[in-house]
Structures are given as structure tokens and as C-alpha cells.
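Q: What residues go here?
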């Protein structure tokens, strides 16, 4: 789609700066009351990796928990049996996130890297209401009535039913132990899968899974504190200048001349229609450090114009690292094929994840968590109101001591780790903290730039898999 360099508003510029800070950490958030988690980039596949899979469909019930709605829909799932040891080899089952499952399949290289070692079948299951798995086809998002079955509980039931079907119908799979794997929201689902269906999966790897990012579990400001710490460590004055940029935007956009200067000089793109593309934008290694090189000014002497020029160059690291784009198309993002609307609906029902900023312990403008305002926005958008404490009720909140065989991995650089499990809960519910890790970095393909801590984490995870497989086979 062609696009032109259009006018830019103060809210749009503010959003660009916020987006810059979050995308450099492989996460996405909105600067609004819908300030809630969204799946981030998993990274590109290794150059020599060849991804091959069969695309299959399974008839799922639209409603697993009621009896009046007896309709079905076709759930898409992807399968690779290249290295599977038929007759008992493990099944690594990816619990699909809020997006097209092929995207996660192509970017979850860890599963592909270890399939041969474990003799495993790989299965990537698509989450209902995303990709091609639409319970009501084109009407799935038409109104709250059709969206009513978009819940994590229904998705987990889909996964459980699909696994039982595979074990019953695929020759040799009856005794195959199944391990749930997921990252971000998918990691939350993999952990909950083991908690809710321990008869279906023998263990779970929950990578960067913020299962505690819910009301009254962790402070609402932790996410943005970690973001700020990351920028502070990545370049001289980096966080201070981002913090200063909010006021600079106010000052510049206060006049028509300032707005014209921003539009002409910074060349942001705001196309009339959404222009999304799949895959991931080319990025340098440690992009946050490259970003910070463009804004390493002395905060006490830098002018507003100079600072925003630096911010523009920093934004270009994400949107135009190759230098081939004449203007910055800020609607084209690596996560463009994720299901934004679907996730917003989930955030407006059961995935209520409070976030806030104070402008003191973080580099952002102050914004309190206001549940009433959040609820009102959800009512206006979808005609529903959130259940603030439902996730704690249904999944146990902080009390997960009674569960077993779950590995929670978190990168110390990942702001979502603030809502994750970063300490051992028991001998069998354990945490792996990756000092040099970003958002579910351990689920990427191995590559030459991986920090040692990431390689170590992957090795530990494989050892846990082997242990769970051994335990499962002893019970046969």
C-alpha cells in the first residue's frame, strides 16, 4: 500500500515516543486505560532453519462449558513429525497466543532446535478467535454476543480436547507424553494448562508469562520501572532524555509552526488505512543500545528541537533501520499480524492487568491506574465490563504451591518479568531468570549472538523436559 507523509498531532507524537521505548524491548502497549500486555516479537529464525509442517483443522465446540450453544468451528493447528519417535516419543505442544499461529510457529525456534534431541512431534495450536480459527467466521467480532466465547478457559479446553484427539487418532501417539510450551500470553496458557489439565500435559514451559500481572498481586508501576531501568543501563542520559521528550513535545506542538516543523522535519507516516505486514523488521543487535546512541544529549542543555530530532532518529532504528524508507510508517510493525482487537476484548473481560506510571521512578508521564475509567472504556468499546479478580479466582493468583512440573523463565531485561514468577515455588515449580534475556528470548532459534545465560536457560529447560518424559514413561 502506498502512503504519504501526513500531518502529526501531539498525541500521535507522544504515542510514537512511547512505542519506541516499548518496541525496543520487544513488547507493545497502548498509552491509554487499555494499558495491558500484548505479545511481542519472538525474533527471526536462524538463517539455515527450514520450517516444514502440515496444516490441519479440528472441529471444536464453540462452548465447552454450556449446553445450549452446540455449534462447532474449525481450529487450525500445525504439525511436524520429522523427528518424532512414533510409539511413545514426546509431543511438544505450543499453546497459541493472540495471533496467527503460523507466526508463532516460524518464530519459536527453540522447539525446532530440540525436536530431534527429544524425538518429539511438534504441534502448534491456534487460539480461538485468532488467525483462521474463528468460531463464527466473519461474524466472530461483530458484536459482544459473538465474542462471548473468547476466553482463556475456552482456549485451554480447546487445547485439552485437541491433545486427547491427537493421542486417540494418531498411530503411536497414545503413550506420548505432552509438554505445553508458550511465550508471553502463550506462556500464561501453558502454565495454566498444566495447572488445569495435569492429566493432559506432563509439564509446561511458561516463558515470559506474567501470570501475576493482575490486581493486588504486583505493584502496577513495576512494568515501567523495568523499562526505565533498561534504558538507563543502555546509554548515557537515555532515560533522562526520553523523560524530557514529553515536555519537548508539549512545547513544540503548542504552535502551528511547531507542528509543521515536526511533520516536515521528522517525516512520520500516518497512512489513511492500516498497513500491516508480517514477519519482523530488520533490527540491529541490542537495538536499545543503538537507540540510546541517538539521544545521549546533556539533558540540561539540549534544545527541544535537537531532542526531537534525536528521538526521530531513534525511532528510525525500529521503523527504518535499513535507511530505505523515505518516511517513517509508524503503522507498519513487526507484530502487525497479532490480534489487537481480540486481545483488547480479553483485556476488557478477564485479562485485567493494571499498569501505572508516576514520572518519578520511571521516565513516563504520570498516569494512575483507574479501574472505573478502564471499565467505562471497555463498556464503550465492546459493551462489556471487566471482572477485575476473575483471573485470581480461576487460576489461583499467588498461591500456586500445589502444582508441579512448571518452569517459569523470565529475562531480567523484560518488563513483563515484573508480573512473572522469578523465584522457585517448590522443587517442581521452578524459575529460571536470564540476566541478559529480553521477552521470551529463550524461545528463539539458537544463534551466534546468544548470551551465555540464554544458552544455559535453554539447556536447563531441555533437562526438565527429559525428566518429565522419564517420569511419565515410568507411570505407563
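A:
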Amino acid at each position: 500500500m502506498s502512503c504519504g507523509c501526513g500531518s502529526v498531532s501531539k498525541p500521535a507524537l507522544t504515542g510514537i515516543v512511547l512505542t519506541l521505548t516499548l518496541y525496543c524491548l520487544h513488547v507493545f502497549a497502548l498509552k491509554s486505560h487499555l494499558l495491558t500486555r500484548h505479545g511481542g516479537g519472538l525474533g527471526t529464525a536462524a538463517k539455515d532453519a527450514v520450517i516444514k509442517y502440515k496444516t490441519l483443522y479440528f472441529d471444536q465446540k464453540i462452548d465447552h462449558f454450556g449446553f445450549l450453544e452446540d455449534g462447532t468451528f474449525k481450529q487450525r493447528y500445525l504439525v511436524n513429525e520429522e523427528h518424532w519417535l512414533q510409539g511413545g516419543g514426546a509431543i511438544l505442544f505450543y499453546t497459541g497466543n493472540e495471533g496467527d499461529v503460523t507466526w508463532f510457529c516460524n518464530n519459536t525456534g527453540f522447539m525446532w532446535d530440540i525436536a530431534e534431541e527429544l524425538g518429539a512431534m511438534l504441534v502448534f495450536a491456534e487460539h480461538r478467535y485468532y488467525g483462521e480459527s474463528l468460531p463464527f467466521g466473519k461474524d466472530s467480532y461483530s458484536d459482544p454476543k459473538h465474542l462471548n466465547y473468547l476466553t482463556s478457559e475456552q482456549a485451554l479446553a480447546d487445547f485439552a480436547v485437541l491433545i486427547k484427539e491427537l493421542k486417540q487418532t494418531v498411530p503411536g501417539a497414545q503413550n506420548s507424553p505432552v509438554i505445553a510450551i508458550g511465550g508471553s500470553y502463550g506462556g500464561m496458557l501453558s502454565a495454566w494448562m498444566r495447572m488445569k489439565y495435569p492429566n493432559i500435559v506432563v509439564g509446561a514451559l511458561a516463558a515470559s508469562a506474567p501470570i501475576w500481572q493482575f490486581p493486588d498481586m504486583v505493584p502496577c508501576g513495576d512494568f515501567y520501572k523495568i523499562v526505565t531501568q533498561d534504558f538507563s543501563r543502555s546509554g548515557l542520559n537515555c532515560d533522562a532524555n526520553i523523560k524530557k521528550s514529553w515536555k519537548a513535545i508539549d512545547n513544540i506542538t503548542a504552535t502551528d509552526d511547531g507542528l509543521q516543523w515536526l511533520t516536515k522535519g521528522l517525516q512520520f507516516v500516518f497512512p489513511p488505512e492500516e498497513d500491516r505486514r508480517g514477519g519482523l523488521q530488520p533490527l540491529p543487535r541490542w537495538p536499545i543500545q543503538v537507540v540510546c546512541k541517538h539521544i545521549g544529549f546533556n539533558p540540561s542543555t539540549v534544545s527541544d528541537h535537537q531532542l526531537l530530532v534525536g528521538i526521530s532518529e531513534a525511532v528510525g532504528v525500529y521503523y527504518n533501520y535499513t535507511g530505505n524508507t523515505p518516511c517513517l510508517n509508524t503503522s507498519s510493525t513487526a507484530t502487525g499480524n497479532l490480534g489487537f482487537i481480540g486481545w483488547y476484548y480479553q483485556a476488557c473481560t478477564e485479562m485485567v492487568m493494571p499498569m501505572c506510571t508516576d514520572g518519578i521512578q520511571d521516565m513516563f508521564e504520570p498516569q494512575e491506574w483507574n479501574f472505573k475509567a478502564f471499565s467505562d472504556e471497555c463498556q464503550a468499546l465492546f459493551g462489556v465490563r471487566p471482572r477485575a479478580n476473575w483471573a485470581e479466582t480461576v487460576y489461583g493468583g499467588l498461591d500456586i504451591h500445589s502444582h508441579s512440573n512448571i518452569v517459569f523463565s523470565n529475562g531480567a531485561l523484560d518488563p513483563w518479568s515484573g508480573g512473572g514468577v522469578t523465584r522457585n515455588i517448590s522443587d517442581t515449580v521452578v524459575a529460571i531468570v536470564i540476566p541478559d534475556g529480553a521477552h521470551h528470548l529463550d524461545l528463539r532459534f539458537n544463534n551466534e549472538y546468544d548470551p551465555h545465560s540464554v544458552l544455559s536457560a535453554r539447556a536447563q529447560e531441555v533437562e526438565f523436559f527429559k525428566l518429565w518424559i522419564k517420569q511419565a514413561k515410568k507411570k505407563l
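A: Context that may help when evaluating the design: The chain has two domains: 12-36+216-351+353-384, 73-213+391-474. DSSP finds 15 helices and ten strands in the chain.
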